[in-house]
Amino acid sequence: MADSDNQETINVFVIEDHETMREMVCRLIRHAPGLSLCGRSESAEEALAQFPHCHPQIVLVDLSLPGMDGLALIEHLHQNQPEILTLAISAYPESVYAMKCLEAGAHGYLTKDKLISVVEAIHHIHNGGLYISEQVRSEINQ
Predict the structure, then answer these.
(1) Residue 52, CA distances (Å) to 2, 13, 46, 47 in order
(2) Burial status of residue 6 (CB atoms within 10 A of its CB: 0-12, 13-18, 19 or more)
(3) CATH for 10-140, among 3.40.50.2300, 3.40.50.300, 2.40.150.20, 3.30.830.10?
(4) CB of 79 within 8 A of CB of 52?
């Protein structure tokens, strides 16, 4: 699918167990040019069941999920569906969490206090980059 600029529309799936946060992220994606919200869920298991029907290119994964946690889901996708890019979303600004996500196969790490950057992060990852929230990045570089 393409928009009027002949750019690819990026299918994004949001996995977040807190309804208010999930709706906020979904609203940001729905209103962003070049992005399409193809699905959302509150658990990894529910998301995995929906993937064959919506074909996400980028999955936003909250680390704290009921059942299979976000880190386990990132590892699962990296091993079994490496074409799906993952952006971890977390309330934890400490670099140790970001490093665990990147080691598991995530393509980015965004702290929830910087969700305004989610559209930028998605485009950066889709274009082959690695995205890390500024606060976490500065901690890693110390």
Answers:
(1) 21, 12, 12, 10
(2) exposed
(3) 3.40.50.2300
(4) no
Residue-wise pLDDT tens digits, 78-98: 999 999 999 999 998 888 999
For the entire predicted model, the pTM comes to: 0.91
Please write down the long-range contacts of 130-134, taking CB distance under 8 Å and 24 or more positions apart. 130/102, 131/87, 131/107, 132/98, 132/102, 132/108, 133/93, 133/98, 133/109
Give me the percent of the chain exceeding a pLDDT of 90: 82
